[in-house]
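Note to self: keep these together.
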Amino acid sequence: QVQLQESGGGSVQAGGSLRLSCVASAYTYVDTYKTYYLGWFRQAPGKEREGVATLDRDGSTAYADSVKGRFTISKDNAKKTLYLQMNSLKPEDTALYYCAADPAAPPFVIGGTYLRGGWGQGTQVTVSS
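Structure:
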């Protein structure tokens, strides 16, 4: 499975912005990375895992209703890096954020419960009011 490493988390006040990054391992070829289905999900203490955004190999995106209009998922194939631009952050966005990747199918669907493929260690986002 692909190895992923997230970064970019931190503590911000409500209304602030953060950009998360997720780099695939050096052992992942760029041509292979281009074909991955990608996504970001989050886990807050005491809450169920929530799919935040997905990016399919054809470039189509999907977002959870809770983040639509505020978060943007994108990638840079040459850098094998997935991004999540988060604007207008709210305290309820506080969570551990993970990126996920799978070569054959979406690692998860928004609102679904399954999770497949590989994911990283997560990066903490804390939003204070």
